[in-house]
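Why do we care about 3D structure at all? Because function follows from shape, and shape follows, mostly, from sequence. That is the central idea of this module. The next example makes it concrete: a single protein chain, its amino acid sequence, and then its structure expressed as tokens.
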Amino acid sequence: MRTFLATLFIAISGILILWISTDGGRAFTAEEARRLEIRETPRSVPDWQLQNQDAETFTFQDWHGHLIVVDFIYTSCPGVCLILSGNLKNLQKDLSAEGKSDKLRFLSITFDPEKDTPQRLKEHLSHFSADFRNWIAVRPTSSPQKEAILDFFKVVVIPDEYGGYTHSAGYHIINPDGKLVAIFGIEQMDELRAYLDQALEGKDNASKN
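And the structure:
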């Protein structure tokens, strides 16, 4: 009997811990928890002063009133960054053809500002045929600023043994009021496209949260 009660106690404790750690069973990975937190608690994006591919100052206030899709990259990335940028290229092309690009902006932020000079950022965008009117790349201007940005967006960046990085990959949505309201993974392009269509057409309150 004691063995049964002990086993039952352990099982219940395990279920309780799982329930708490997965936010009531809704998030089974850190990435899912990150996306869920932003959906439920949108946050205002600080107006950092960043440097763009033309070596000019950019702030988020410059794009106030627009829907912004943000991704995090480094230009020497051999893998997932190419997928991130390739998807943005397709989105830009499709939405431009549909006449929706005026309300939408794409922002690629490098977390390797020491190597990613304005020239390298411009070359990266050019490789993906970016329209610089609504897709730019920027870099933090100091190490503390970079850390603050990564912390705000909850982007994980870990140096690897080859001089590159393992890092979070996704698309961060900032609404026209300057709030981070959603995050989509690279495996969620259909969902991202549907979200953008609804927000741009005014059919959804998500972009106004």
